[in-house]
Each structure stands twice: as structure tokens, then as C-alpha cells.
Amino acid sequence: MKKFIKPLASIKLAVFVIILLAGISAVGTFYESMTNEAYAAQKVVYKSAYMILAQVLLIINLTAVMIDRWPWKVRHTGFVCAHIGIIVLIFGSWVTYEFGIDGSMSVDIGSKSRSVVLPDRLLSVYAYDENMRPKKVGERTTDFIVNRPKPDEPLFVVAGKPLTLKEYYHFAERDEKIVESDNKNDGAAIRFLLSNDRVSVSEWMFISKTKKDHVVNLGPARVIWDYGVYKYDYGNVLHLSPKGDKVAYKIYSEKTKGLTKEGLTTAGSIIQTGWMGLELRLFNYYKNSTKKITYVEKESASDATHSAIKVNFDGKDHWLGLNSVLRLFTGENGFILSYGQKQVRLSYDLFLKKFHMDKYQGTARAATYASDIFIEGLGDYHISMNEPLKYKGLTFYQSSYVNDPNDPNRVIASVFSVNQDPGRWIKYLGCFIMVFGICHLFYYKKFVMRRKKKKAVES
Q1: Prior bond to 71 cis, omega within 30?
Q2: Which of 1.10.1790, 2.60.98, 1.10.10, 2.30.29 would CATH assign to domain 104-115+344-420?
Q3: For residues 9-20, b (16+ Cβ closer than 10 Å) or e, as one string?
Q4: Could you give the 3-state DSSP secondary structure of residue 11?
Q5: Would you say residue 218 has pLDDT above 90?
Q6: Does residue 266 contact residue 247 with C-beta atoms inside 8 Å?
Q7: pLDDT above 90: residue 131
Q8: Could you give the CA distance from residue 88 to residue 96 in angstroms, rounded to a whole number?
Q9: Can you tell me the distance from the alpha carbon of 50 to that of 438, in angstroms, rounded to the nearest whole number?
Q10: Out of 109, 168, 423, 454, which could bridge 144 as a Cys pair, Cβ 3.0 to 4.6 Å?
């Protein structure tokens, strides 16, 4: 037994484990700094097999050292407690990792929510039932950062056909293009340039069966693209609509309060609007078109990036971004593939009554912010950056806020970090045992030596 325990209790193994833990932590710090995202660092480094191996080796080393000192004496109390405390601390961390919640909740001002969004990703497949309502027929947690399926390994089998993963980008920017289509059920699209000596505006406009019109508001004028149903109301308006292989146009003027010009045009032609010296140049016209969505991989996170997957189904590739859905068809059957973040539904609603923000004097930077919320059964509560809410096992922290995209000075939602830590008291206990052991190690020897010296003086 001693021969088996001695190598595991050696100081060499302890030094190796400490260096290994320090190295992995350093790599995780650099990786998180480079990618600008904690979730990726957690998956790749902090919760990797290497970190788990390092912690298991640490537990083995600590346990072997204690066994090697058996039988224990009173002077070993501090030594044993310090080692046990570390093991209990690691165990508490594992309990939190396995059974805890670490998510976020975004609530609009004047609205309520009970959904906590977790960082983990989820793939789900829905099929339509006899009442044409989607019903979940498959689901799986995805961890494509470190565990990507093989190219021939299907994620799901839908209507007897495999759905496989072709690409996964953890940091990706959406790239949307309008391309011509052979499908007569697809919508129509145009690309125009409206310009004069001082203004130049180029835009794609797309309409489909679900999106009946597309309006571009240019301030003193509007460009409207629809199937010919627009009725003039006000202002300078350029109304365009598909007419077979050509585009029908109608020009309305604010001065005359009505129609001033109409006709048919084709791609490449120029139309004088009659107001502000503006002329319309039609670059492209697709009688049938579709939106082709792809993603461009990036090296780090930003406000414009999120994860994206490319799947193959029935011989066709499809891109799908995080928190979006894809509709798949096989003959007369329709399916929905959903790729989003996991969510936990609470048993109660959190209603955001008011959001408060104080800014640094003379700047637009937020100094502090807080939220007035209401929960049925609890009542009103004020959550600030230094005053979280603890309710039914969850802790709500004021973490951030959301600005109106059209008005950066206006806050429209408050963001809370939601945490459930079932291993917290185990970690507290581990820290207490470890600190007690360290104190015992420092002071026990001094206390014993003092007693021996006192006995020697007395004798």
C-alpha cells in the first residue's frame, strides 16, 4: 500500500498539478481576452477535459498525502483540514456546475417576463400536426465548439432523411444577398439608385407573399415597392410595382397633391422624378427572387457576431443563425428546425416598472443603474448594481440595459443576471475548513512550543 501511495503523495506530483492548473488558467485568460467572450473560454478551457484532469489529479494527490500520514495525530489536524477543505471546495464547484443556473433575463420597461436565457445552445425539430400546429419531435443540446459531429453523423433524421452539420462558426456575421430565383412562388426584388448633385441613395427592395410591401423613407420622399396596391396619401412618393418583365412606376408630388407621371420601365433605365432634381436609376429587377443568407466567420465576438451553423438536408445546404428558425419541406410535409439558447421558465413573472440611470457628470457614460420590479407574492422591489434580489433560490443581479436602436439615449429594457448556486454552502464550508486548517498549521506549533517552554521553566 505504501509503495502505491508514495508516488501519488509525492511533492513532484503536487508541483506538476499546480503548474498544470496555473498554465490552463493562463491559457483561459488569454483566450477569453482574444475572443472577448466568456462562454467560449468556459467550453474550450475552464471546463475542458484538461482542467477536469488537473482537478482529479489534485484530489488524488491531496487524498494520497493524507493517507500517507496515517495514523493522524493532533498535530496533523491543521494539515488534514487544509487538504479536506480544498477537496470540499472542488466538490462544491462541481455541484454548481452540474445543477446550477447561470443565465440572463431581459425585460422591456412596462413589460414582464419569466424566461431565463442560458448560454448553452439547443437544436430542436418541429413537425406540423393534423391541426397545422408545430409539435416538437426531436431535440438535442449542442456543443459544437469542442464536440462537432462527424460529416456523416446525422443531427436528426427528418421524414427518413438525414440532417447533417456541414459548418459551425462560433463567431459569425450575417451576410444577406438577394438573388434571382426560378421558383414562381418567390417574391420580387429591385435595386435602385436615387440621386442628385447632393444625395445618392442605393437600396435593395424585396417583397414576398408574407411581406406585401417595402418602404424606404428618405425624409422628403418615399420609395414604395409593392404589388400595385398603394393608394396615395401624402408627400413625394415614388411607387414601384412588378408588371411581368417590367416595372410599373407612379410618381406623386407634394406640390400637386397627386400623380404627376406614370409608366413602365426596365433595369438600366433612368426616370426623372420631378422633385429636387432627383433621378431614379433601376439597376436590377428580379421577377422572382429569394434572400440568400450566409455567414462570414470572425476571430472574436462583437455586437454584430453570433454563432451560426450550416446544415445539409435533402441535398441542399442551409445557413441558420443563433436564435432563428429554418423551414424544411419534403413533398407535402413541412418541418421547422430551431437553433437557439436554452431557456428556463420560472413559475412567476417579473414585471419591470421603471429603470433608473445616473451618469457621470458631463458625460454620457452610465455611473449606476437600477430597476424597480414587481413579482406577485413578493411585491415591489428595487434591484441595483449593489443590491441583488434573492427569491425562491434564485439571485437576480442588475447587470446591464438595452438602448433603443433608433435613439441611443433612450433605454428600452433592463438586463438581469440570474444565478442559482446549489453548491454555494458546500464551497463556504470548504473555505471554512481550509482556513481553519491553515490557522491551525500556523499557530498550533507556536502554542505547543510555548506550553513546552512553560513546563520546562516550571520544572
Answers
A1: yes
A2: 2.60.98
A3: beeebbeebeeb
A4: helix
A5: no
A6: yes
A7: no
A8: 12
A9: 28
A10: 168
**Does residue 458 surpass a pLDDT of 90?**
no
Helix (H) or strand (E) holding 225: strand 221-226
DSSP one-letter string for 314-379? TTEEEEEETTEEEEEEETTEEEEEEEEEEEEEEEEEEEEEEEEEEE-TTSS-EEEEEEEEEETTTE
Evaluate if residue 85 carries a pLDDT over 90. Answer: yes
Average pLDDT score over residue span 288-299: 90
Interatomic CA distance for residues 225 and 203, integer angstroms: 11
For 79, 264, 439, 448, 456, the CA distances from 451, given in Å and listed in that order, are 21, 108, 18, 5, 9
Nine cell digits for residue 283 = 439597376
User: Can you give the pLDDT at residue 418?
Assistant: 96
pLDDT tier at 133, thresholds 50, 70, 90 = confident
pLDDT tens per residue across span 25-59 = 999 999 999 998 988 899 899 999 999 999 999 99
Residue with cell 493517507: 67
Query: CATH 2.60.98 spans which residues of the chain?
Result: 104-115+344-420
The model's pTM = 0.76
Q: At residue 130, what is the residue type?
A: E
138 and 162 Cβ atoms separated by less than 8 Å: no
Residue 322: what pLDDT? 93
Contact 153, 162 (CB under 8 A): no
CA atoms within 13 A on the CB side of 26: 6
